[in-house]
Write a structure and sequence with these properties.
This protein has about 140 residues and is mainly alpha-helical. It contains 6 helices and no strands. The chain has one domain.
């Protein structure tokens, strides 16, 4: 028999959950723009951005990029639904994003390391936040 706690998360839980949902939706937008941006749109970008958009990424990189952003977004939805499986999806997203960002920093010359490190840190915080919510019985 399963027993459920009546522990309700505080208001800041919902605020943080929505903020990280927005963060993950920005990742989805970045992924989609990588595939649907026209040559005209790319030509209006800064030279470094043009290079990054025209770079021939390997298929596995594109796949883990997709897994990272979509797993993270689904995890946020799970968090808002107070579902424990969000934690597993955050771990998957973290692992994929870490591999993706490490490859990006190593392979693309001259890129700033600030954003890749920020992405990895935010993914790690999402894992921690969801694990903490499980311990506090805010999600089940």
């Amino acid at each position: 028999m399963t027993t459920y706690s009546n522990t309700k998360p505080p208001m800041w839980f919902w605020i943080v959950s929505v903020i990280i949902l927005i963060w993950n939706l920005l990742g989805v937008m970045a992924y989609l723009s990588m595939h649907f941006m026209t040559e005209e749109m790319i030509s209006k970008m800064e030279p470094q951005q043009q290079f990054e958009m025209n770079y021939d990424y390997p298929a596995w990189y594109i796949a883990i990029f997709a897994i990272a952003v979509f797993a993270g977004t689904l995890a946020c939805i799970g968090l808002l639904m107070r579902k424990k499986w969000a934690y597993t999806l955050f771990i998957i997203s973290f692992l994929c994003a870490t591999v993706q960002q490490v490859y990006y920093v190593i392979e693309i010359e001259g890129v700033s390391k600030i954003m890749p490190l920020t992405i990895i840190a935010v993914c790690a915080l999402q894992v921690w936040f969801s694990k903490s919510a499980i311990r506090k019985a805010w999600i089940k």
